From TrEMBL:
Residues 533-634 form the PH domain. Residues 81-220 form the C2 domain. Transmembrane segments: none annotated. It comes from the Eukaryota. Residues 287-481 form the Ras-GAP domain. Keywords: Acetylation, GTPase activation, Metal-binding, Phosphoprotein, Repeat, Zinc, Zinc-finger. The gene is rasa3. This is RAS p21 protein activator 3. InterPro entries: C2_dom, C2_domain_sf, PH-like_dom_sf, PH_domain, Ras_GTPase, RASA3_PH, RasGAP_CS, RasGAP_dom. GO terms for biological process: intracellular signal transduction; negative regulation of Ras protein signal transduction. GO terms for molecular function: GTPase activator activity; zinc ion binding.
Length: 791
């Protein structure tokens, strides 16, 4: 069983400078706490906790997906508890020296788990008391040092009742006496501070639990101390509006999900794709994001994400009438690509943007260019120059990062570009805008604007830095859009004036080169439909590939040219190719050790028959060529895992001295680039989430079936209640819907059986299901039923 919850703060009825989220263990009573904090502006910065919102675990589902106002509650040390305690109570007869029979309570404190750590340490002990109308006896365990999971295993004895008549042979306790008594166990942290020991939590156990049997052995959740908080009126603290998203998944063994999983993974092959299971999920969900998250994770896990997104993107492009609005809506395609970039592109984002974002957040250079917001001590021209430098640097790191873009993103971008170019053949820029609308508008620009949401920064930036990042993000977004009229993209005149710095062709060329590189596919069976894209060119020195005797005459200066189809060299720029190497024939691209030819900055392009040795003009250019050649060839099926770092000369390899020129490599290939990010995804859990969504929106599935029937028999205007569904082929869609309903109903039956069996097997008071303040009555009822059955 897996539980997750997400909290988004929407508003507060009173204004507080900052809000942060904390949580307690799922084992404790409150699983979600959100304190509101007032930030002090004294010379010593101290956060003062104003109040909190606490939601019990069993109540989370009640607030799922809803915006709810919660009253703030006072925060005190006595109310912040977590953990559980294991107790054993035994009521027994004891014969005194005088022969009188007494009834004593033996209380055994065995252990605790998950106690809170206070001020970096936890030295717990337990205080045990027997409470009644006229008694309050207290005893303590030994202190257990430096552990929040103490093992006590200590027994304490308490006299419970007056001696009974000697004539009674069986043990008996008057129920009215038991009802008046209770056992209290409090956990404390032994502190060396002058303020005294800290309260960790407590349990109150009425002795009526012993009325059915003389022994009670159970785990209890620790509870806050009664009346431990300060006397503060709740309404005086204000309230907080929260949106809680809570899921609890019971994941079955993999074979239970086979029918539904097969339907989902077959989606890319269904014609039309609107009749596929995955597309139907997007149609019935209230928000496309609900469907996109589990779908993307499932398809990534099984390596099916590229064909699926290609299919739904192609269908969306064909429905688009204006190239200027391509992929601008919140469609299933857009949400799926967004989610894919978040998962597969997070490392790429970290490597590309984090260093410069950290620098911006640390330097605090003034970058405000709005004359109205300018401070008296700031200079407008200086601020513009600071901002221009930041924009230039971020633009450069983005447009030179194409070789690090994950392969799965490149393949998706290739599909988008090809679909857009085929659909709108007159518009020459649509192949760029189709890709830039995602990589700039939905990936880089949001990450710059809110770096904390993309794990680039631990916290939200301060207001001044946030303003700087906003200005940078808007400029980068416009640079990447390749719009015809740049100034028209800005509502503010000061932004239009600032953008004049970047109204040069070199910026548009850099964006196009970057988009060309990241939209290059590694799937060579698609090359026949793709227009070759020039990726890099320039003069370098190469060694002849023939078997001629080695000599300086074998090194010649040539013009090299790389497209996403082939790597060629020419005598001079513009002449025909002297040699062409198809990209699929590049098995590895690695550096060549200097000792081979006593020449620096050399690398080798390894082919099936031989290696091409090349010398770049400098080390930076060598690195660039190696990176980009590795990038375009990294999906080749026959890529090598080992290579020879030195050349084959004079009848042997210089590195390993092996004489056979066909000998396998002696050194592991570097690869040059990070491999596709491997995600820790549980495919069965994602299928379970999709089942839950289908189950939640079952009424919409039924309505969609009705819509298919209506479209099949009626050619007139579409009924309004069915207009929200995309149904291109009613018969095929109805067939898929029938299969979905069948698979969901089968899983529903399995869930019902699981819950019924689980309820029967659940033992309240066990370590897995401790007794809480709401489950005590259930425990009493369960014990009563058990006693009845035993009789």
């Amino acid at each position: 069983m897996v539980r997750t919850f997400i909290v988004r703060s929407l508003a507060a009825s009173d204004t507080f400078p900052s809000i942060y989220l904390t949580g307690t263990s799922l084992g404790g009573t409150p699983v979600l706490e959100r304190p509101l904090v007032r930030r002090s502006h004294l010379s010593l910065c101290v956060d003062v906790c104003v109040g909190k919102v606490a939601v019990k675990k069993e109540d989370l589902q009640k607030y799922h997906g809803k915006d709810t106002w919660f009253q703030l509650q006072p925060v005190s040390a006595d109310s912040e508890v977590q953990g559980k305690v294991h107790l054993e109570l035994r009521l027994s007869e004891v014969i005194t020296d005088s022969g009188v029979i007494n009834h004593k309570l033996a209380t055994r404190v065995l252990e605790c788990q998950g106690l809170p750590i206070v001020n970096g340490q936890c030295d717990p002990y337990a205080a045990v008391s027997l409470l009644g109308p006229s008694r309050s006896e207290a005893k303590k365990t030994k202190v257990k040092r430096k552990t929040n999971n103490p093992q006590f295993d200590e027994v304490f004895y308490f006299e419970v009742t007056r001696p009974l008549s000697y004539t009674k042979r069986q043990f008996d306790v008057e129920e009215e006496d038991v009802d008046k008594l209770a056992l209290r166990v409090d956990l404390w942290n032994a502190s060396n501070l002058k303020f005294g020991d800290e309260f960790l939590g407590g349990v109150r156990v009425p002795l009526r639990v012993l009325s059915q049997a003389g022994v009670h052995d159970a785990w209890y959740f620790l509870q806050p101390r009664e009346n431990g908080g300060k006397s503060v009126k709740v309404e005086e603290l204000g309230s907080l509006r929260l949106n809680i998203v809570y899921t609890e998944d019971h994941v079955f063994p993999s074979e239970h999900y086979t029918p539904l999983r097969d339907l989902l993974l077959h989606s890319a092959n269904v014609e039309p794709v609107s009749a596929s299971t995955a597309h139907i999920l997007g149609e019935v969900c209230r928000e496309k994001q609900e469907a996109a998250i589990p779908l993307v994770r499932l398809f990534l896990h099984y390596g099916k994400i590229v064909p699926f997104i290609s299919a739904i993107a192609h269908a969306e492009v064909n429905r688009t009438q204006d190239p200027n609005t391509i992929f601008r809506g919140n469609s299933l395609t857009s949400k799926c690509i967004d989610e894919t970039m978040k998962l597969a592109g997070m490392h790429y984002l970290q490597v590309t943007l984090k260093p410069i974002i950290d620098e911006i957040c640390t330097e605090h250079k003034p970058c405000e260019i709005d004359p109205v917001k300018l401070k008296e001590s700031e200079n407008l021209d200086t601020n513009r120059e600071n901002l221009r430098q930041y924009v230039d640097r971020i633009f450069n790191v983005i447009t030179t990062s194409g070789v690090r873009c994950p392969t799965v993103m490149c393949d998706i971008f290739f599909s988008l570009r090809e679909s857009a170019a085929t659909r709108f053949q007159v518009d020459q820029d649509v192949r760029y805008t189709a890709v830039s609308s995602f990589i700039f508008l939905r990936f880089f620009a949001p990450a710059i604007l809110s770096p904390n949401l993309f794990h680039l920064r631990p916290h939200h930036p301060d207001p001044a830095t946030s303003r700087t990042l906003t200005l940078i993000s808007k400029t980068i977004q416009t640079l990447g859009s390749l719009a015809k009229s740049k100034s028209a993209n800005f509502k503010e005149s000061y932004m239009a004036a600032f953008y004049d710095y970047f109204n040069e062709q070199k910026y548009a060329d850099a964006v196009k080169n970057f988009l060309d590189l990241i939209s290059t596919s590694g799937k060579w069976d698609q090359k026949s439909i793709e227009t070759p894209i020039m990726l890099k060119e320039g003069f370098m020195i190469k060694r002849a590939q023939g078997r001629n005797r080695f000599g300086m005459k074998n090194f010649k200066k040539r013009w090299f040219r790389l497209t996403n189809h082939e790597f060629t060299y020419h005598k001079t720029k513009g002449e025909g190719a002297l040699c062409s190497i198809p990209i699929e024939n590049i098995l590895a691209v690695e550096r060549l050790e200097e000792e081979s030819f006593k020449m620096k900055n050399m690398f080798q392009v390894i082919q099936p028959e031989r290696a091409l040795y090349i010398q770049a003009n400098n080390c930076v250019e060598a690195r660039d060529w190696i990176d980009i050649l590795t990038k375009v060839s990294q999906c080749n099926r026959k890529r090598l895992s080992t290579y020879h770092p030195s050349a084959y000369l004079n009848g042997h390899w210089l590195c390993c001295k092996v004489s056979a020129d066909t000998a396998p490599g002696c050194t592991p290939c570097t690869g040059g680039l990070p491999a596709n990010i491997q995600l820790d995804v549980d495919g069965d859990r994602e299928t379970e989430r999709i089942y839950s969504l289908f189950s939640t929106y079952m009424t919409k599935l039924i309505k969609m079936q009705e819509a298919c029937g209506s479209k099949s028999v009626y050619d007139g205007p579409e009924q309004e209640e069915y207009s929200s569904f995309v149904i291109d082929d009613p018969q095929e869609t109805y067939k898929t819907l029938k299969q979905i309903v069948s698979a969901v109903q089968t899983l529903e039956q399995q869930h019902t059986k699981y819950k019924r069996d689980k309820f029967k097997k659940t033992k309240i008071g066990s370590q897995e299901h401790p007794i809480g303040d709401k489950s005590f009555q259930c425990y009493i009822r369960q014990q009563s039923e058990s006693s009845t059955y035993s009789i």
